[in-house]
């Protein structure tokens, strides 16, 4: 896993959300959460697993909406932040956070209604093995995102501290075929990369977002998208 030591550092965990989801990053947070909700459908009384759950952005959100959620992550400091967030939100009874390896999920086959992974596959050295495990433990939905190879993401990829794996659509389709997942919906968004939005105020980000969505709506505009959300069924 690329950047494993960087990701597990105490100071990274403490500053993770403040650096990525304040300022213009709030817009990204809203878009990602809506993508997760759209993929899962009705959330209440649903059993959900999030791998690489980090500080619990999605696990807490889903628990607040009535899902029973398990979040798994390799980083103890990230999980600590997630537990504090769950307690503050009053959803600890609907949420379990545990440390573990996403490549060897400690659950039986068909254990969850949905399995999700956000901000994970750009770090994965062996994406097929992780995706195969996600499929194994899901009864219905598998949802994940990728950063795209032929996009503005590649311009600043070299500056990321942990590196970043970029995917072509052909590569994602091949991965889905290899593990036996059926693609239900693929959404492609953010012509301007995430890193750009994080550097500007939230009010300014809204203006650029309008330009971004206009570009994305043009013929072949989605081919310029820097991120894709993949909703699949088992």
UniProtKB/TrEMBL annotation:
Keywords recorded for this protein, A-Z: Methyltransferase, Transferase
Annotated Gene Ontology MF terms? methyltransferase activity
Keyword Methyltransferase in record: yes
PANTHER family this protein is in?
Answer: 2-METHOXY-6-POLYPRENYL-1,4-BENZOQUINOL METHYLASE, MITOCHONDRIAL, METHYLTRANSFERASE
Q: InterPro entries, per this entry?
A: Methyltransf_25 (IPR041698), SAM-dependent_MTases_sf (IPR029063)
Q: Which Gene3D superfamilies match?
A: Vaccinia Virus protein VP39
Q: Where is the Methyltransferase domain?
A: 48-139
Protein name, entry field: SAM-dependent methyltransferase
Q: Which GO terms describe its biological process?
A: methylation
Asked if the record carries the keyword S-adenosyl-L-methionine, the reply is no
Identify the stretch annotated as signal peptide in this record.
none
Q: One Pfam family this chain carries?
A: Methyltransf_25
